[in-house]
Amino acid sequence: MNVIESKLKGVKLIEPKAFGDHRGFFMESYNEKVFKENGILENFIQDNHSLSKEAGVLRGMHYQLAPKAQTKLIRVATGAIYDVVVDMRQGSPTYGQWEGYILSEHNKRQLLVPKGFAHGFCTITENVNVLYKVDELYSPEHDRGIAWDDEDLAITWPVSNPILSEKDGKHPQLKNADNNFEWEEK
């Protein structure tokens, strides 16, 4: 497994080892021991699965407030997404900065999104199955989001007119969002 550190401290791009032959491939998408050896210590307690039927579906930018904040481990089983994280940790040297990554069934990459980050993705193919682990259960009262098109963030999405849920079309800008995340130097 190869772990690539992001400029956003705590975000990690993970490249699992895949073993392929004429039949296809095999890989371990999660092995607690190997992840811990690579400094990923989260205790994941739930697996989630979303299907987006069309290209151009944008889901995000989501997060849960502390104490119910979630670390997520995201991967794509079919199709491809442009996956984006935004640092929401007040006082962080990278507060309000974002990074985007292509995750696909072909590159088999995974993204670790720690607590304190908003997360969202846009499908760039049809029939996209996204699987993700979380280390905290969903909590409706802590569920929040920021605008996918926040002008201050200036995220470069692969679409200009995405397919959104009603909820995702109404999130506030980062500067107006509920935010109880604080930067902690580790």
Automatic annotation (TrEMBL):
GO terms for molecular function: dTDP-4-dehydrorhamnose 3,5-epimerase activity. NCBIfam families: rmlC. The keyword Isomerase applies. Pathway: Carbohydrate biosynthesis; dTDP-L-rhamnose biosynthesis. The lineage of its organism: Bacteria, Bacillati, Bacillota, Bacilli, Bacillales. GO terms for cellular component: cytosol. Catalyzes the epimerization of the C3' and C5'positions of dTDP-6-deoxy-D-xylo-4-hexulose, forming dTDP-6-deoxy-L-lyxo-4-hexulose. Keywords: Isomerase. The record marks Y138 as: Participates in a stacking interaction with the thymidine ring of dTDP-4-oxo-6-deoxyglucose. It catalyses: dTDP-4-dehydro-6-deoxy-alpha-D-glucose = dTDP-4-dehydro-beta-L-rhamnose. One of its GO terms (biological process) is dTDP-rhamnose biosynthetic process. CDD domains: cupin_RmlC (cd00438). The active site is at H62 (proton acceptor), Y132 (proton donor). PANTHER family: DTDP-6-DEOXY-D-GLUCOSE-3,5 EPIMERASE, THYMIDINE DIPHOSPHO-4-KETO-RHAMNOSE 3,5-EPIMERASE. Gene3D superfamilies: Jelly Rolls (2.60.120.10). Residues 166-186 are annotated as: Disordered. It holds the Pfam family dTDP_sugar_isom. This is dTDP-4-dehydrorhamnose 3,5-epimerase. Homodimer. The keyword Isomerase applies. Belongs to the dTDP-4-dehydrorhamnose 3,5-epimerase family. Its EC number is 5.1.3.13.
